[in-house]
Design a protein that fits this description.
Blueprint: E1 2-3, H1 17-20, H2 49-61, E2 65-72, E3 77-84, E4 86-88, E5 91-97, H3 103-110, E6 114-118, E7 121-129, H4 133-148, H5 150-157, E8 160-168, H6 173-195, H7 198-214, E9 220-224, H8 232-237, E10 241-246, H9 249-261, E11 268-272, H10 278-285, E12 290-296, H11 309-316, E13 317-328, H12 333-341, H13 345-348, E14 356-358, E15 365-367, H14 372-379, E16 383-391, H15 398-401, H16 408-421, E17 433-440
Parallel strand pairs: 9-10, 9-12, 10-11, 12-13
Antiparallel strand pairs: 1-8, 2-3, 2-6, 4-5, 5-8, 6-7, 7-8, 13-17, 14-15, 16-17
Bound molecules: S-adenosylmethionine.
The site of S-adenosylmethionine has 21 residues, from helix 6 and strand 10.
Length: 441
Amino acid sequence: MFSRSLNVGMTMDNPSAGSSDLTRGLPDAPTSRYNYSGSNYAFWEIDWPIVALMNESSLRSESAFLRLTLYDVEHSQARDVPLRFVEVHGHPHVLYSAESPPDWVSQATESAIVHWCVGHRQFVGTASAVKDPVSFDTAVLPVFEARYGKEQLFRWFGTDMGCIELLESQDGLPYYRGVEALFDSSAPKYDAVVRSNPFDQYLRTVALEILRRQFAPGDRVLELGCGTGLETIPLAEAGVEIVAIDISGGMLRELNRKAREASVHGRVETRQGAIRDLSKILSDLGPGSFDGAFSHFGALNCELHLNSVPESLHRLVKPHGLLSLGIWNRTCLSEMVLFGIILRPRRALARFQSSVPVGSSRFGVPVFPYSPGEIKRLFSPFFSLEGAIGASVLMPPYNLGRRLAPHPGLVGLLEAGDRLVRRRPFFRYLGDHFIVDFRRR
Ligand SMILES: C[S@@+](CC[C@H](N)C(=O)[O-])C[C@H]1O[C@@H](n2cnc3c(N)ncnc32)[C@H](O)[C@@H]1O
């Protein structure tokens, strides 16, 4: 694409290594909004050799690479491609060998939306080829050369280089629209699906046991990602007042209908919007409006801009108020064991990628798994950790457990086992979800 004559007197050893080999010498971190040093895989209170190994290698590499996530929507699989990048005019640029372009190039440029992350920061936008040779020569190539050296670039990409620019969608709208459409379409059958699956139902039982202890009648509580109100309605019935937010109008319609049927609509106020827009709630209702807040089972895993959430919640919740979060875990013991047994290692380790596609092939929304360490790090400037339990540690995740549903004896046994281990160190961070309780500082 952009041919260069480089008198460096060597052959190109492996063009694709420039975009995939994490073990070579790492350059300095770029100084920009994409600069991040941290680990995607940090755990706390877990001493597990495999995880420790992953921690180390990701710690070394986080700041030098972006991870482009490519989705095979048809097969519901994602893969992360680690790429060296430089930032030009505020946008990450990556190179490839135009002589033998890797398959991610066409996949990324043909997708309406691409997702990448740097460290734990997630980005959504588009990927487009840099076509103007002058701007490549004057703006992009010199930055790559300064960082990696001409010889190294030649070894990786040869003399004919292609360049892709990643443009972040400023408002993330394509992603949020996808999430909204996915949940709108699930809304009418959502409760029936949960109720017909004992493993899905179990998550709500665990959540409600916790929430009922945490919030008292008369408390005013903010719920993020309420869905159809599987936690909202029982809490309102217990006398708690709830402001419930959800991105999906379809989910909120179901919730409002159920609140009227249960005669608790006076205690439930719904607001449609994304969790990232908590500033709107803040300006409408004012700081310290809530005695506590909660978000259970997946909503925070779908929020692209999670970084701003802890501070907003800190402003909305009164001092010493409680925050309960149910998060889709990065390390799910039962899933790893089940897929390990049937020799599907990629699927067993799928959650170690930065995101996992979820939903029918029409939507294929990327959902972001988090480790307890990541969540703790994010919230700890504003909230102190009070406790944590695992949800579905020995029970399989609900999507895998369906076949066991007709065997209530076995389900009961697994549930009893789950209740035994879910608070224990080590096990509590290996569930399909983990539930962490924080207190506002
Ligand atoms: C898996 S459901 C969980 C709902 C409910 N908490 C439950 O336990 O059934 C996730 C909910 O979060 C909502 N959601 C996803 N991303 C969101 C976002 N960024 N802002 C607000 N709501 C979001 C979805 O519309 C959906 O209703």
